[in-house]
């Protein structure tokens, strides 16, 4: 699933790779073959279909994995580790130092960054 703001970075035909916990030493190459035309309005995410080679039958339905998709121009973004996010239960906040003891609050987004990192995109 991809966040709405990251959909422009995903293109049909883009190369993809999958890693699953069951086979950490193995990467399964694939390709984006379809971008579904609907958006989940609750999560603001869209699904994509990736076709993967599975000649040895190691991949099983329902396995969890991490997919990396290449392509699209990366946008510069401020990213912070998960430990820097203040989670009140109702929202997540990051304090951004502005210098001379001043700071501002920012809301993080989890889109298009590695796990355990957050992207600061909204003030």
Commentary on this structure:
The protein is mainly beta and 123 residues long. 0% of the residues lie in helices and 46% in strands.
Main features:
five-stranded antiparallel beta sheet; 123 residues; four-stranded antiparallel beta sheet; mainly beta
Q: Give the structural class.
A: mainly beta
The averaged pLDDT comes out at 81
Distance between the termini: 25 Å
Calculate Rg over CA atoms. 17 Å
Biggest sheet, in brief? 5 strands, antiparallel
Q: Describe the strand arrangement of the main beta sheet, using strand numbers.
A: 7-11-10-9-8
Roughly how much helix do the residues carry, as a percent range?
under 10%
As residue ranges, the low-confidence spans are: none
Strand content: over 45%
Total number of beta strands: 11
Task: Give the structure's gist in a few sentences.
The protein has 123 residues and is mostly beta strands.
Topology:
Elements: E1 2-3, E2 15-20, E3 28-35, E4 45-46, E5 48-52, E6 65-69, E7 78-81, E8 86-87, E9 92-99, E10 102-109, E11 117-122
